Amino acid sequence: MCCFLRLAALTESLENRTPSEQRTLIGETLYPLVELLEPLFAPKIRGMLLELPRTQIFRCIESPGYLRQKVNEASDVLVDWYPQQMKLDEQEAKKFRAVMIFSKL
């Protein structure tokens, strides 16, 4: 579906919804787009993107370049966050970072 049509359908379906339902619908629209760019961290990155102002979220949906920029920014944050969360030792953390950097090439 064209990005413009996807956004138009989404904004129409958001009418008369609770904020929680709106967040769910927006997240369901974002997820497959994010998953194409960063499958390993798609759930976490989608959550990070949902914290953006709605205008930026909609721009992510309608602009593949902008989405890629925001996914890359989130991925950069996760490269440092994930090893700490998983309590990886220094060598494992370096391997993880190398894999993440290589996957962006």
UniProtKB/TrEMBL annotation:
Domain of life of the native organism: Eukaryota
PROSITE patterns attached to this UniProt entry: PABC
Pfam families: MLLE (PF00658)
Residue intervals of the PABC domain: 6-83
Gene Ontology MF terms: RNA binding
Protein name: PABC domain-containing protein
Protein species of origin: Brassica carinata
